[in-house]
């Protein structure tokens, strides 16, 4: 009888502890609920982003966290995922190397040293009597920077056009001399956009609405009602006006 109770207790203990297990590619915190965001660590973030796009997700935000501690980082990522309404967050580590710590101090001239009965002459009520010293900065030690997590938060998106885009990188913006837009990463087969919008096309407008980022693209897509959708895009540096038919 005692043996049965002991086995039962061990079984309960295993179930309780299993909620804190960090899986090979995922993380689950305490009090796991069905709607909790899933958090995954990967080696190649860009490769995983493309895979997520092909699976019908779009990246809605990219952020960075300094990895002071793994548990704290997971908590911060989970809280941001809930804030974004994102069911899945994917992150990777980025090593930041070392940095030099500098000490800054005031080097005072001899006349600035106050002692004995002279203290009252240079108090806060007579600031003009205090000589100005020189500020110097010198290296003190080297300190290792914490690893940094780069995180992408994803929405599940049923794109009626068949286009799954990502935000432009700073390099994309500089190279194309633009400030906003999205880049088509995946165009689904047998979708309205197939053979009209190509992967790597930069979408600037949809039905005359400026498309600033992925969130704007998702919002505009949710209100598409017309039989045709007009696009203004950049393709290899050339601006084009295109239309797709929404008739199936």
Task: Give the key terms.
248 residues, alpha+beta, five-stranded mixed beta sheet, 13 strands, 35% strand, disordered N terminus
> Based on helices, strands and strand pairing, what is the structural class?
alpha+beta
**Helix count from the secondary structure assignment:** 5
- Helix content class: 10-25%
Query: Average pLDDT value?
Result: 77
Our Rg estimate from Cα atoms comes to 29 Å
The total strand number stands at 13
Element order: H for helix, E for strand: HEEHEHEEEEEHEEEHEE
What does the model show?
The chain is of the alpha+beta class. It is 23% helix and 35% strand. The chain is built from 5 helices and 13 strands. 21% of the residues are buried.
Outline of the structure:
The chain is built from five helices and 13 strands.
SSE map:
Blueprint: H1 2-18, E1 26-27, E2 38-41, H2 45-54, E3 57-66, H3 70-84, E4 88-94, E5 98-107, E6 134-144, E7 148-156, E8 163-167, H4 170-176, E9 182-187, E10 202-206, E11 209-210, H5 214-221, E12 228-235, E13 238-245
């Amino acid at each position: 009888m005692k043996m049965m109770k002991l086995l039962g207790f061990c079984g309960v203990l295993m179930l309780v502890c299993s909620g804190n297990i960090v899986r090979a590619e995922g993380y689950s915190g305490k009090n796991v609920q069905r709607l909790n965001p899933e958090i995954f660590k990967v080696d190649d973030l860009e490769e995983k982003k493309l895979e997520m796009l092909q699976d019908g997700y779009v990246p809605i935000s990219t952020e960075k966290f300094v990895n002071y501690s793994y548990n704290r980082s997971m908590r911060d990522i989970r809280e941001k995922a809930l804030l974004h309404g994102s069911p899945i967050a994917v992150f990777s580590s980025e090593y930041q190397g070392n940095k030099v710590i500098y000490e800054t101090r005031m080097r005072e001239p001899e006349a600035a040293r106050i002692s004995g009965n002279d203290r009252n002459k240079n108090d806060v009520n007579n600031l003009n009597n205090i000589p100005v010293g020189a500020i110097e900065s010198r290296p003190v030690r080297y300190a290792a920077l914490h690893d940094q997590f780069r995180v992408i938060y994803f929405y599940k998106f049923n794109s009626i056009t068949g286009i799954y885009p990502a935000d432009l990188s700073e390099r994309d913006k500089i190279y194309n001399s633009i400030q906003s837009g999205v880049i088509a990463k995946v165009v689904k087969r047998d979708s309205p956009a197939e053979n009209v919008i190509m992967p790597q096309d930069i979408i600037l407008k949809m039905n005359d609405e400026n498309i600033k980022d992925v969130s704007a693209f998702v919002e505009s897509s949710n209100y598409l009602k017309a039989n045709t959708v007009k696009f203004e895009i950049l393709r290899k540096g050339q601006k084009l006006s295109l239309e797709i038919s929404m008739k199936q």
